[in-house]
From TrEMBL:
Protein name: D-ribose ABC transporter substrate-binding protein
InterPro entries referenced in this protein's UniProt entry, alphabetically: Peripla_BP_I, SBP_2_dom
UniProt keyword terms in alphabetical order: Signal
Region: Disordered, residue numbers: 21-43
Record's keyword annotation contains Signal: yes
Periplasmic binding protein domain sequence ranges: 44-297
Predominant subcellular localization, coarse grouping: other
Cross-referenced SUPFAM superfamilies: Periplasmic binding protein-like I
Family, as annotated: Belongs to the bacterial solute-binding protein 2 family.
């Protein structure tokens, strides 16, 4: 029989930006090098993987917001490859775009190319992932992955009734979010001695790879009770593998991102919970910062790093989730 998830404290609403007032008109008109224009122009949007629903939502939001602000856009994807990211960033720099919205390919790997854009007078706003230095990007707006992993792991542990064996599917190692989420899961689950992690595999955020790695894990650990995954795509791949083996009813699965397929899986009882990342809100705010810098030369942020809290999605609110937004 499938265990049903018990009532868990409702998730935390995403926080907003702490904005400060901009300078007077003379200062705004002058601005630093690379800022102080009238707005409009071209923004280069460089993301990770358009085939993933999460990054697809990031792209759609960025393009829509940019268009509403009067900008044209050029969108490309680096696939978490730092070399490809460098090529795409250099193209944007050579094209003398007015601003760059970047979802970085690695915290350390992205520093030099962001520095190059800034040196060229092009403001850069980061979304979804951080880089290893501050003072370069105008904004680093990310989901609070540690908080999200914590609330997700607590809900999943409750669904597991705090006992049993489980495996973990990990995201791409070069993406800092993969380790942050894994550490967040471990920080919670290690508190319960009757929960035992018996195996793990890297599935690189991908559904098909998640299914394949889950199949491998099931061949080694056929009697597991649970799966924690670093994102929804890997979790959904795990569900496919479990369903094929006729084991889904006996295994609790945890996802992360809050995409529509995951919401449906939670509503149908195939996934214990997922964690909504407020990517549409974060992308909108990153674009607003970029626009402000382009127009005035001044960032509206007190601190370039902004972490937006994630929201726990269970059977209680899964039907309210659509397009990475939770209807109230």
């Amino acid at each position: 029989m499938r265990r049903t998830i018990l009532s868990t404290t409702a998730a935390i609403a995403a926080t907003g930006l702490a904005l400060t007032g901009c300078g007077g008109s003379e200062e705004a008109d002058a601005g630093p090098e690379g800022g102080g224009g009238e707005g409009g122009g071209e923004i280069s949007i460089i993301t990770v993987d358009p085939s993933n629903p999460y990054w697809s939502a990031e792209i759609e939001t960025a393009e829509t917001v940019a268009e509403e602000m009067g900008y044209s856009t050029d969108t490309s994807a680096h696939g978490n490859d730092p070399d490809e990211q460098t090529r795409l960033m250099e193209t944007a720099i050579n094209n003398d775009v007015d601003g760059i919205l970047l979802d970085p390919a690695g915290a350390d790997e992205s520093v030099a190319i962001v520095q190059k854009a800034v040196d060229a007078g092009i403001p850069v706003s980061l979304v979804n992932a951080e880089i290893a230095e501050t003072g370069l990007a105008e904004a680093q707006i990310v989901s609070n992955n540690a908080q999200g992993a914590t609330v997700g792991a607590e809900a999943w542990a409750e669904a597991m009734e705090y006992e049993g064996t489980y495996v973990e599917l990990l995201g791409k190692p070069s993406d800092n979010n993969a380790q942050v989420r894994s550490d967040g899961y471990e920080g919670v689950l290690s508190q319960y001695p009757d929960l035992e992690k018996v195996g793990e595999e890297i599935a690189n955020w991908d559904r098909q790879e998640g299914q394949e790695k889950m199949e491998q894990l099931l061949s080694r650990y056929p009697d597991i009770d649970g799966v924690v995954a670093g994102n929804d795509e890997m979790a959904l791949g795990a569900i496919n593998a479990l369903e094929q083996e006729g084991a889904l009813d006996d295994v609790e699965v945890l996802g992360f991102d809050g995409n529509d397929d995951a919401a449906q899986a939670v509503a149908e009882g195939d996934m214990a919970a997922t964690v909504l990342q407020p990517i549409t809100e974060g992308t909108t705010q990153a674009m607003e910062v970029l626009d402000e810098v382009i127009r005035t030369g001044e960032s509206p942020l007190e601190d370039e790093k902004v972490a937006l809290d994630c929201v726990l999605i269970t059977e209680e609110n899964a039907d309210q989730l659509q397009g990475f937004s939770l209807e109230q």
